[in-house]
Amino acid sequence: MSPLRPLSVSDGNGERLRFQVAMYLVVVVFVGLLLRLWYLQLIHGETYRSLSEHNRIRIEDIAPTRGIIYDRYGRILVDNRPAFKLAIVPEDVSDLQQTLFHLSQILGVDRGQLSEKIQGAPKGAPFRPIVLRRDMTRDQLAAVESHRFHLPGVMVQIEPRRSYERPSFAAHLIGYLGEIEEAQLKDRRPQGYKLGDYLGKYGVEMEWEGMLKGKRGGRQVEADAMGRQLRILREVSSRPGRNLVLALDARLQHRAEAVLEGKAGAIIVLDPDNGDILAMASSPAFDQNQFVRGFSSSEWQAIVGDPLHPLENKGIQGQYPPGSTFKPVVVAAALEEGVVEPGTVLNCQGEYRLGNRTYRCWKKEGHGQLALREALVQSCDVYFYQLGQMLGVDRMASYARLFGLDSRTQIRLNNEARGLVPTSQWKLKRYSVPWQKGEDLNVAIGQGFLLATPIQIGMLYGAIGNGGKFLRPRVVLRVEDTSGRLVHNVYPDMLRKLALRPATLSFLQEALVGVIQEPYGTGRAAQLHGIKMAGKTGTAQVVRMADDEEEQDASEVPYEFRDHAWFVAYAPAETPEILVVVLVEHGGHGASAAAPLARQVMEEYFKSRPRVKTAQSSADSDKPALGINQQAAASGQQAVR
Amino acid sequence: MIDRRLIQNFDWLLLLLACAIVATGLVILYSAVSSGGKAHSGILMRQIYWLGIGFVAMALAFSLDYQWLERFAYPLYIGGLLLLVAVLVHGKTVSGSKRWLDLGLVVAQPSELMKPLLVIALARYFARQEKRDGYRIRDLGLPAIIVVIPVLLVLLEPDLGTAMILLIISVSVVLFVGVQPFSLLVLAGCSLGSLPLLWFLMKGYQRQRILTLIEPSRDPLGAGYHIIQSKIAVGSGQFWGKGFLEGTQSQLRFIPEHHTDFIFSVLAEEWGFLGSILLLGLFLCLLLRGLSLARRSRDHFGALLGFGITVILFWHVAVNIGMVLGMLPVVGIPLPLVSYGGSSAVVTMASIGILLNVGMRKFVFQK
Questions:
Q1: In B, residues 218-277, which contact A (CB 8 Å cutoff)?
Q2: What number is the ipTM of this complex?
Q3: Cα–Cα distance, A604 to A251 (Å, whole number)
């Protein structure tokens, strides 16, 4: 260390002076603080004392209006309405028991219930209004207003409330709101959520919560001793949420729901060219308003305990054996792997023997000699048993994955299931039992362990129809602000291309036309005059029949043992612009139970076809016919590009 | 063996002033947390426990000759930086910012520790690079780096208030050691000129935060409301105060953070103008005493160290009380020895220990 030097020598008066200045500055600052104290406590002390007595300056929230949801043509699907909520500031109430008694009579509830709410309120800040009732009826409102003078500390506030214009319409797709739970509140507080707030809990309402919710505002209010508002000191207005324009076509949705009425199942209508979800119906549905209102415990029990699972979106959550809708995958595998040629003729006698077991064709008398194309058109099981035997499960599984099974379609909705594609390894691991030869046969006709969701089947056939493109299903087209200006555009999103030889793809396309258009095609029930359609039926067994059991009439089988009916079709076959998937749970045969429903939806679409397709392809030609509201958005869209 | 002169020169007055402030602080804290219910019941005990540790830290800080601080100034500084980096990597996130480091037994706030460490590093640099007629810009390159690194690390937490305090303290030290008039002009011009650029680079919400800081009424539902409530609390205390435990503003929890950053408002409400000027007076005496100890230091490092430590205390008191009185932006700066907070309490006590250290060894002699 350097030798120490006496300070007085090295620094002399310079540093001494600086210390002096520093001391003066400290004193000056303290005098400043003292004067400020003098000003606040002595000069204005009286005013502040009286302000503190009742703490008259309070904060009041201004709830934001949640974004409106439109269909692709600007029809309002979800809106808000004003609702009146009753709140109380216990600190302002002179006789709480008396007031609660009064209110309990007006609201028609037990007084204990009300005082529970007050006791249960978070003990955060004092003079915070505690909400007693969120959505008062007109009569209750009138009663409170007329007794206002006798009810100090009681207030009525207006708040926007979610209103589902057509109850249960597209309920699974749009979803619903619910009050925030305490567990959610912990993570969401930084985003501005508070106890008692509503947020999206399902469907689009949940996935697009960040856009829809808007931003809360508030005001500083000066109140009198009775808690009544005297004047507003400051106000920060709320920012309404963004509006959403869905890909949905309300007319098709309506039709899809109508044809599913009384059945359990799902219909998805989509545009194979860009992935637009034009309709997504799941039956039975539920009334979303009930979620906003809140359930009584018996209502909740009824909806949760319903064996038809109304809360489940069967289009993306329901997993079913794909049945014969899986057959194109097997055909593609067989052609690509070279195990058969298109001309390979095999025989169907109505059944197929493997070891000591007999596997039947759906057609008891058999199809006789047929080639690959006819086998698909007529959905001959025996032909596919043989393909399955030649291919083996693992090769079929790899093609199933190629076609998007066993993975989510990445639709932006919660709870999408991924289905299941078995392999020999998977079975060994899962059940510790080796794969049996006979199981190859089951997989070849879409049975066994295979499971797929309707949306997966839709995207699979969409990819066949559109030349091999796998797109992300598009639920929301764009986000707009309240004046209709574009905020965010959702472009079609191509995920991957189907890696198949062009000959294989066109073989499939051509055969699927045969399924609908030819006299022996299994899907001829879906035929629509003047429209060339392509598709496939499917019948998924729920319980396997015993070998020697005779096939029974559908009506004789108990409901839960009946087969699931599938049908999927797109049109026009050459340049598909609409695809319909139908699944009817326990509906019986696809050809009779599902195909006619698809035809009705197709019919609705072609009745007033919304646009004329040009040769130019997909991604940019997806602008819908524009409503007034969308004109501005579309021009904004141009500007963005 | 302890030199008798060390005991002779021990500054009992400074210790007494610090103890008086600590005692006042505990009384106010008792009042501030008395209404808080369960969540707050342990706060007073924890603060006493921390102050106990603080006294130990103080004793350590004055028993070793401060020349050791000079010798280890840079390693200590780097240690402080490492802790700040650790906070960013492993820190606990509380309401959106990472400020606390979980050290197993305790949760500490390294940015508090950084304040004296920064001052020590600066004092060491300037004591070794003496310039009679003031420093020029190129002499200030290294100190600038010494200052900017911790400021940036604290900004990343993000803790705007502490970053600003670090900056103000450093500027005070630099002004104290003296800068050539021309260099000073250039520096002032550059920093003023860079403000618009900085503003331009900031994102919208960041600008909003700065504006709110400067003008709380822009955020009438948050900071603006707190300031109003704080002013009501202080003003309603009038001359005599409402009495111990009688402050409605603080007892009813109108004021957020009333046991930490806004604790002065509890004093002002319950003890009035009288109590407020008493505490202000104690702080003023403490600061003036600190400066005079520094002035009489035996060497340049001691003088700078004593000055820097006093400056830290000064800015905390001024900014904190200024904020409570609605004169200054709402930044999260504690009132030393009074606000609840372990890291702040221990570090402040140790800082007082350093001041005592400088005072004890004021005579020039060598062992």
A1: 219-221, 224-225, 228-229, 231-239, 248-249, 252-254, 268-269, 272-273, 276-277
A2: 0.92
A3: 8
Q: What is the CA radius of gyration of chain B?
A: 21
Sequence ranges of the domains in chain A:
58-246, 250-303+311-620
Residue whose C-alpha is closest to residue A522's, from A482, A484, A565? A565
C-beta neighbour count of B134 within 10 angstroms:
15
Strand partners, A82: A160
With a pLDDT cut of 90, the percent of chain B lying above it is 47
* CATH (residue range A58-246): 3.90.1310.10
User: How far does B249 lie from chain A, in Å, by closest CA?
Assistant: 7
How many residues appear in chain B? 367
pLDDT, one tens digit per residue, over B291-306 is: 999 999 888 999 999 9
pLDDT reading at B169 higher than 90: yes
Burial of A174-200, coded b for 16+ CB within 10 Å and e otherwise, reads bbbbbebeeeeeeebeeeebeebbbbb
A34:B277 CB<8 A: yes
Residues of A with a known catalytic role: 324
CATH 3.40.710.10 for domain A250-303+311-620: yes
DSSP string, B33-97: HHTS-GGGTTHHHHHHHHHHHHHHHHHHHHHS-THHHHHTHHHHHHHHHHHHHHHHHHPEEETTE
Residue A593 per-residue DSSP state? I
Q: How many residues does chain A have?
A: 641
The domain limits of chain B are 1-42+214-345
Q: Are B204 and B339 in contact (CB under 8 A)?
A: no
Nearest to A277 by CA among A258, A259, A255, A250: A250
Q: Tokens standing for A429?
A: 């691991």
Which amino acid, residue A46? E
Contact B148, B167 (CB under 8 A): no
pLDDT tens for B59-74 read: 999 988 898 999 999 9
